[in-house]
């Protein structure tokens, strides 16, 4: 029983073919530079890697290329398209309409469209992939899995902004949160790693990558998260500023004579690690420059880690205690230095890092001392597997 998982971005389509019985990823692939000169497909089957250079003008052509490659006698994996039992689609924003993954219908597509102005860079390509797959694979179940759905358990006090209430009523202005499939997956893996029931645990999950967010997971449910109406709020990220004084926006608009679109670009595309360091949005480049003595790179590291540390303290207080901190995604899984800086001086929360155990990259492991009252763990995320599990459940493939 095979599930095709699709993650459609503005100029890319990531995909995995997963055997849901064994939860094994059979095929990994991506089509990049959609609508841009020099587009190509890369695919891995075990140790076999291929690249196909082909001009791909839109998502319809991209998904056609994916399916044709999967069916190719030499380069593919499938003999027949009907080997695909269902397709799981990552959808970034579900608003308040979707607290769970759902089977895709015409009505669901309309509802996703209604909240697309909350994620204008993400939902439209997600919808494009859904429409193409429904046309190409009309007899195969399609399921939407939302980044926001895991956070729909947040209480009002956590998701409401102190703005005129009618903005919430009319436009849905509130905190939604993102990276939900990742936070959900690693929280459950943390409970398993600790050999504890997740309903007995207070866990803080740290999804730290080019996009970064934290979630407070109490008894298995999200009760708070750092991203807000959009993925801009919260932590310092690769190119996003995270939390700032809102008055900075009109101040800079006046001083720099910026339009709303231009100030939005400044905050989303030119800030964060890139803006602070002047070097790169890639944490690996920042770490390297910091080690070589670059002062702005050091400052960037310090600001990033300080912001994460503050949120950990806040969420421990909000949940009334803490049992585990989980690091995941590119920085969380691979940066020994960043994890060490974040956990430093958190011994008052019962966190005692084991320096030797922390010397890992991309490996699932508890990195605190055995006698540490509170655990910290590195857990590689697997959003595709979470999407495949939900897809199989919704489509009735696995009971």
Automatic annotation (TrEMBL):
Record InterPro entries: Ac/propionate_kinase, Aliphatic_acid_kin_short-chain, Aliphatic_acid_kinase_CS, ATPase_NBD
Gene Ontology CC: cytoplasm
Residues reported to bind ATP: 14, 207-211, 282-284, 330-334
Major localisation: cytoplasm
Gene Ontology molecular function, alphabetical: acetate kinase activity; ATP binding; magnesium ion binding
Binding residues for Mg(2+): 7, 383
Source superkingdom: Bacteria
Gene Ontology biological-process entries: acetate metabolic process; acetyl-CoA biosynthetic process
Pfam families: Acetate_kinase
Enzyme class: transferase
Site (Transition state stabilizer): 179, 240
Pathway assigned to this chain's UniProt record: Metabolic intermediate biosynthesis; acetyl-CoA biosynthesis; acetyl-CoA from acetate: step 1/2
Residues that bind substrate: 90
Cofactor remark: Mg(2+). Can also accept Mn(2+).
Catalytic residues, chain numbering: 147
Cofactor: Mg(2+); Mn(2+)
Compartment(s) of residence: Cytoplasm
Reactions mediated catalytically: acetate + ATP = acetyl phosphate + ADP
Description of how the protein assembles with itself and partners: Homodimer.
Family to which the UniProt record says this protein belongs: Belongs to the acetokinase family.
Protein name: Acetate kinase
Protein's organism: Halarsenatibacter silvermanii
Lineage, opening ranks: Bacteria, Bacillati, Bacillota, Clostridia, Halanaerobiales
Gene (name only): ackA
């Amino acid at each position: 029983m095979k599930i095709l998982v699709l993650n459609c971005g503005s100029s890319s389509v990531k995909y995995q073919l997963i055997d849901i019985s064994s939860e094994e990823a059979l095929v990994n692939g991506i089509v990049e530079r959609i609508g841009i000169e020099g587009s190509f497909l890369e695919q891995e089957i075990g140790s076999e890697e291929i690249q196909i250079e082909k001009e791909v003008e839109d998502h319809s052509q991209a998904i056609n290329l994916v399916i044709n490659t999967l069916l190719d006698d030499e380069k593919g994996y499938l003999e027949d398209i009907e080997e695909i039992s269902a397709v799981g689609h990552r959808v970034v924003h579900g608003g308040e309409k979707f607290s769970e993954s759902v089977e895709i219908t015409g009505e669901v597509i309309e509802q996703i469209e209604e909240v697309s102005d909350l994620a204008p860079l993400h939902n439209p390509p997600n919808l494009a992939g859904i429409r193409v797959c429904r046309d190409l694979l009309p007899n195969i179940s399609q399921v939407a899995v939302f980044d926001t759905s895991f956070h729909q358990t947040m209480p009002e006090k956590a998701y409401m902004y102190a703005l005129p209430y009618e903005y919430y009523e009319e436009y849905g202005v509130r905190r939604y949160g993102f990276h939900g499939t990742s936070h959900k997956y690693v929280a459950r893996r943390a409970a398993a790693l600790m050999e504890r029931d997740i309903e007995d645990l207070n866990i803080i999950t740290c999804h730290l990558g080019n996009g970064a967010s934290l979630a407070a997971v109490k008894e298995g449910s999200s009760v708070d998260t750092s991203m807000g109406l959009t993925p801009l709020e919260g932590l310092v990220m690769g190119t996003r500023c995270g939390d700032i004084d809102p008055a900075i926006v009109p101040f800079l608009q006046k001083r720099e004579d910026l339009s709303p679109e231009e100030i939005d670009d400044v905050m989303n595309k030119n800030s964060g690690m890139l803006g602070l360091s002047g070097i790169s949005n890639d944490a690996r480049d920042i770490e390297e420059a910091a080690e070589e003595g670059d002062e702005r790179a050091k400052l960037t590291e310090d600001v990033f880690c300080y912001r994460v540390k503050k949120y950990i303290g806040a969420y421990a207080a909000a949940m009334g205690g803490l049992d585990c901190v989980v690091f995941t995604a590119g920085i969380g899984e691979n940066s020994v230095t960043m994890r060490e800086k974040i956990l430093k001086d958190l011994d008052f929360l019962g966190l005692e890092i084991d320096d030797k155990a922390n010397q890992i990259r991309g490996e699932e492991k508890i990195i605190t001392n055995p006698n540490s009252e509170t655990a910290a763990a590195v857990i590689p995320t697997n959003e595709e597997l979470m999407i495949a599990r939900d897809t199989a459940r919704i489509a009735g493939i696995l009971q």
